[in-house]
């Protein structure tokens, strides 16, 4: 899952601080039966947990060990991990994001994997090297040097549409080869926004947008970014940024094709998508298994592109998170075998991607499996949306598709970004203009960003 990846909108589908253990007890080392034990702490949703649990059971049987598998929500994960850091009571295996590799490595929290990989004869050549490089640290900066984590996946936050709502409205399906322009998107959403029960209130919307995860697509497609190229200056006052933010807000205020801020507060956009009340919503690679499950999402659907703005390119964000090993782990060799199974082992990647097994929770990490996976998905051999190429188009980049990492990936923390999103609903509900909001929030964002960089320099 990516660095997504896992999104706050998915909280309803995530288990809250649940523990799925093969043994009881804190710490790692020896289990009651005398075999080695690993403590693993991750965040994920229910569909991922089911796939991971099966793989872990097989790992335990093969290695004669015990794995204490603990999961939580992404929102709670950071707080729990900070507590572990404070007490120096680390699990053997946990997640590290690209933005924290430098800090964790420098403070001795995570082990250098390069000598462990060399000793075990494990190759990382088939992994996407640009993703792998995000988990390197050379003693000064991240991005190069020795490896401190193996990527869980390379996540893509694509767009999805409810085919049944399109059919009911007599609207043609989106063409993944030709993304909508903004105006075309608005026109389609207007046809799909309805009062279905005749009570005078809209109860079906063309689209739903979770601010913190679906504004980027508008900004980047309009040639805007939150930050300057060196990630040191907040750049939300450019004409391109303000125009994109206005167009994002207009979907609610002007065109009324999304739920209002008040309606979102009563029932979130993710829940409305699951209930069949929105024609378009986002779909991360980690969401596919849930959306393909009829009990979770009983509608026909497929993938498509986000609308384009001035650049003519459909953008979305990419994410990744890595499996690291605690420097304090007593079983580093076993922990390496465990994360290799989940990151770079062919059998493991076939299981996690759904090429074997019943559910796909990610695209395969191994580049040698990408084409086979895409062909299996397109032909229906994997329980997967037919327009699987949308994921690969964003991941690889084409003339009409592009993917980027969020700007917060390249800053010491994301506190500066939090200031923006905590008040952006004031624009969507019409209580502030774009100019007023940008003027009010930019100084706070810049101050927080400056402080973040001072603390690491």
What key attributes describe this structure?
single chain, 457 residues, alpha/beta, seven-stranded mixed beta sheet, six-stranded mixed beta sheet, 15 strands
Produce a short descriptive summary.
The chain has about 450 residues and is of the alpha/beta class.
Query: What general form does the structure show?
Result: globular
State the end-to-end CA separation. Answer: 30 Å
- Rg result: 22 Å
Low-confidence region ranges: 1-28
Q: Output the structural class.
A: alpha/beta
Strand percentage, roughly?
Answer: 5-15%
Task: Sketch the major β-sheet.
Answer: 7 strands, mixed
The number of helices is: 20
Give the integer mean of the pLDDT values: 90
> Helical proportion?
25-40%
Give a count of the beta strands, DSSP E runs of length 2 or more: 15
Helix and strand layout, with pairings?
Elements: E1 19-21, E2 29-30, E3 36-43, H1 46-63, E4 66-72, H2 74-87, E5 93-96, H3 101-106, H4 113-120, H5 129-132, E6 136-137, E7 146-147, E8 150-151, E9 155-162, H6 163-169, H7 182-192, E10 205-207, H8 211-214, H9 216-221, H10 239-253, H11 261-266, H12 269-274, E11 278-284, H13 288-291, E12 301-304, E13 314-319, E14 322-325, H14 332-343, H15 346-353, H16 370-378, H17 389-396, E15 401-405, H18 415-421, H19 425-428, H20 434-456
Helix pairs in contact: 14-15, 18-20
């Amino acid at each position: 899952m990516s660095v997504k990846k896992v999104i706050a909108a998915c909280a309803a589908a995530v288990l809250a601080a649940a523990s799925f253990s093969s043994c009881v007890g804190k710490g790692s080392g020896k289990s009651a039966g005398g075999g080695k034990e690993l403590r693993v702490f991750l965040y994920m949703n229910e569909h991922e947990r089911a796939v991971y649990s099966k793989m872990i059971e097989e790992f335990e049987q093969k290695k004669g060990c015990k794995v204490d598998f603990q999961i939580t929500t992404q929102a709670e994960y950071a707080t729990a991990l900070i507590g572990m850091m404070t007490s120096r009571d680390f699990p053997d295996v946990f997640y590290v994001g690209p933005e924290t590799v430098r800090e964790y490595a420098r403070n001795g929290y995570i082990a250098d994997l390069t000598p462990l990989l060399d000793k075990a004869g494990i190759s990382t050549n088939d992994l996407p090297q640009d993703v792998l490089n995000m988990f390197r640290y050379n003693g000064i900066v991240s991005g190069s040097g020795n490896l401190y984590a193996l990527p869980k996946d390379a996540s893509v936050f694509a767009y999805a549409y409810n085919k049944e709502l399109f059919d009911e409205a007599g609207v043609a399906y989106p063409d993944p080869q030709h993304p909508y322009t903004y105006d075309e998107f608005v026109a389609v959403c207007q046809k799909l926004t309805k009062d279905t029960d005749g009570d005078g209130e809209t109860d079906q919307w063309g689209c739903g947008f979770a601010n913190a995860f679906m504004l980027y697509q508008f900004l980047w497609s309009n040639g805007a970014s939150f930050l300057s190229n060196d990630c040191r200056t907040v750049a939300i006052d450019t004409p391109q940024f303000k125009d994109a933010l206005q167009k994002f807000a207009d979907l609610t205020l002007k065109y009324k094709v999304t739920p209002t801020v008040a309606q979102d507060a009563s029932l979130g956009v993710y829940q409305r998508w699951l209930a069949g009340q929105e024609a378009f919503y986002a779909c991360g690679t980690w969401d596919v298994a849930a959306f393909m499950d009829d009990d979770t999402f009983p509608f026909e659907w497929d993938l498509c592109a986000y609308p384009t703005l001035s650049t003519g390119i459909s953008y979305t964000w990419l994410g990744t998170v890595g499996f690291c090993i605690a420097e304090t782990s007593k079983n580093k060799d076993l922990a390496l075998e465990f994360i290799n199974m989940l990151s770079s082992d062919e059998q493991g990647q076939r299981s996690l991607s759904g090429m074997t097994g019943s559910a796909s929770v990610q695209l395969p990490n191994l580049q040698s499996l990408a084409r086979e996976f895409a062909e299996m998905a397109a032909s229906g051999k994997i329980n997967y949306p037919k327009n699987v190429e949308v994921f690969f188009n964003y991941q690889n980049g084409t003339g009409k598709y592009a993917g980027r990492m969020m700007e917060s990936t390249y800053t010491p923390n994301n506190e500066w970004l939090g200031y923006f999103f905590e008040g952006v609903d004031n624009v969507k509900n019409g209580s502030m203009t774009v100019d007023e909001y940008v003027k009010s929030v930019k100084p706070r964002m810049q101050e927080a960003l400056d402080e973040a960089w001072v603390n690491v320099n």
